[in-house]
Amino acid sequence: IDVKTRSIITVVALMASGITDSSLKYHLQNAKNHGVTKEEIAEILTHAAFYAGWPKAWAAFRMAKEIWAE
Prior knowledge:
The protein is mostly helical. Helix content is 83%, strand content 0%. It contains 4 helices and no strands. The protein has helices at residues 3-17, 22-33, 38-52, 54-69. The longest helix has 16 residues, at 54-69. It is globular.
């Protein structure tokens, strides 16, 4: 699979595991660098929230908002 897709999978796996520290922030930045758009990350995290839980998703959303604001 391509690097963009791998980046997405990594972000979702970390979020679903509840890993919302600097590791998630690093991989969100990596996803952005590999072409994931602001709209795509919002859709990805929203979709994953239904399976992983909204508290984890909100933590990821906060980090994503910072990264895509840069």
